[in-house]
Structures are given as structure tokens and as C-alpha cells.
Amino acid sequence: MSEIIFHHYPPSPVAEKVRVALGIKQLSWRSVIIPRIPPKPLLMPLTGGFRRTPIMQIGADIYCDSQCILRELQKREPEPSLYSNAAGDVSWALSRWSDTTLFELCAKIILAIAAPDMPEEFSRDRGRLYFGPNYSYAKIHDELPHLISQLRAQLGWVDQQLSGSGNFMQGEQATIPDTLIYYLVWFLRGRWEQGPEFLAQFPAIIEWEQRVKAIGHGQSTDMDAQEALDLAKSVEPITPAFVAENDPQNLTLGMKVSIAVDEDSGEQPVIGELRFADRETIGVLISNDQVGTVCVNFPRVGYRIEICE
Ligand SMILES: N[C@@H](CCC(=O)N[C@@H](CS)C(=O)NCC(=O)O)C(=O)O
User: Are strands 5-8 and 55-58 parallel, antiparallel or unpaired?
Assistant: First the structure.
């Protein structure tokens, strides 16, 4: 199997989610550090313009979004499983909560408090990306007591689950829900001055946090971004040419489609030729001089696919 190449930057919380999954599976991987804000000239040729972090590359197959990355890791390396049963489980529904509602609450609290001290370019970029065109850090700041009350109640549910579940969210093995909550606790503790004090009210979370931290990130070795591009160019994508039956959008192989985050985040869509589509994943081929042809995969949930005329 080709090497797992992970494009990320150390402070990225969503990347931390995947690093923990790499740790659960004790995988070896190559680490390419990418910029925290665009331009990302050595990443864009691989993703067709998708700018979020993290991205996984295996040869000429690219996986965008942590949802798609974790699923692919589980497919390629089934043991130890990220699921609580062999067929998969309801963790993806949990991810719709942790990665939207809960992530947004954490991001609002952390960024609204840090905004005055952040580089202007960074705070503007993240404000538009996460909170829409009319965001105002001042307004978010005024709402902090409300936002913290929302977060406290919802993390309380996690604390209750952990008080009775064993060492991890679903028992004695770390699985997807552990990664889904850990990255947010890591984000709160590391980037919000009052984070440690806030988290102290959740004793089961605090003990579990140490257990997840001890799992580590597997074994990584650094890789140069240009080397990753050259590698993609030297091989062909192995994502199969396949469209599952009864596609609700009538997708067919080879059609030109655009794929975009399904929220008003100001991001450009990725446009490519349809190579793969099933219930959960869509993959398109894109080509350029730097990488040749690569297959860029996205989750379907949370993304809007449009057929280009
Ligand atoms: N749904 C995406 C969210 C990814 C995301 O928003 N990541 C943040 C970093 S933690 C990001 O992309 N920030 C902007 C950037 O890195 O350019 C996923 O699960 O991968």
C-alpha cells in the first residue's frame, strides 16, 4: 500500500481528530505541513482548490474532510476498528453534531476572545469561513455567557456518557466518538485561556482526555510538499470508476460536477469529472501540470453537488 501522506498544520483541531485516529490504528504516515491561510500553492493542485485542513493523500487519491479521511483509513486498515461493531455504527450521526453545532460553539468562544490579539488576516479569514458574510466578533463576544451555557450543557452529556462507559466513549476501545470529542476538548484547552478552568467541571472528561492523549498519533516522518506533488504525478488514481445504483441526483460516470461545502463560507467549489459516487462519498478527477490526474474525494453529507451543464 502507498504511504499515507497527511497535509495539515500542528494547531489545527480537525487535523488533531485524524491524528488521534492514526494513533488508534498505530499507523506510520508522512507529514506535510501546510499554511494556515490561503494561498496554499502546494496544496491546491492536489485538491482542485479546496482549502480546508486536513487533507489525506495516498498516491494520486486525495481525501478531503476528516469524515472522508476517517472512512478511508477504516477501509484500508480495518483493525483495530474505529467502529464499535463490524458493520459501522451511528458515529457519523454524532459527527454531524460534534463537527457542526459543537465545533461552531468552540470556534465562536475561542476566536471571539482571541480576535483582538490575532493577526488581522487570520481573524478575517476564519470569521468569514466559519461564521458567514455578516459575522461580527463583537456580537459573538456579547453572547459569550449564552454560548458557554450551550457548550457546558452539551459537554455535560459527554461527561455523563464517559462516567458510565468504561475507558472510552463506547467501552474499552477508542473509536470514532473519542476522536470526535477529543479534538474539541484539545481545542478548548489549548486555545482558550479559561479552557482548563471550564473543563475542570467535567471530571470524567478530564480522566478520559489523558487516556486519549496517551494513544498518541502513530509514527510520522516529515515530507516536503513538493515531494508529495511529484509523487501524485508519478502514479495513477486507484479510486474505482463506479456509481452506485439509484443515485438521488442521477449522477453518472464522467459527468462534470461541482462540489462545495454546503454552507455560506465563501469557498470556491471543486469542479471535476465524476469518477466515483456512492451513498457517502463522491470522487472527481481533476488534472493539472503539477500533479497530472488525481481523484479528489469528498463526503456527500455536508457538501452540495451540482451538475455542470
Ligand atoms: N468539515 C471539515 C472541516 C475542516 C475545517 O474547517 N478545518 C479548519 C482547520 S481545523 C480549516 O480548514 N481552517 C481553514 C484552513 O485551514 O484553511 C473536516 O471535517 O475536515
Answer: antiparallel
Q: Using the structure block, give the residue that is written with the C-alpha cell 458515529.
A: 91
For residue 212, with 0-12 CB atoms within 10 Å meaning exposed, 13-18 middle and 19 or more buried, which class applies? buried
Q: Is 65 in the pocket of ligand 1 (CB under 6 A)?
A: yes
Our answer on whether the CB atom of 42 is closer than 6 Å to any ligand 1 atom is no
Ligand 1, atom 14, lies closest to the CA of 52
Residue 86 placed within a domain: no
- pTM of this structure: 0.98
Overall average pLDDT of the 31-49 stretch: 98
Report whether 202 contacts 36 (CB < 8 A).
no
CA angle 223, 226, 227 (to 5 degrees): 50
Task: Tell me, in angstroms, the distance from the centre of ligand 1 to residue 194's CA.
Answer: 23
Structural domain boundaries, residue 237? 5-80+220-307
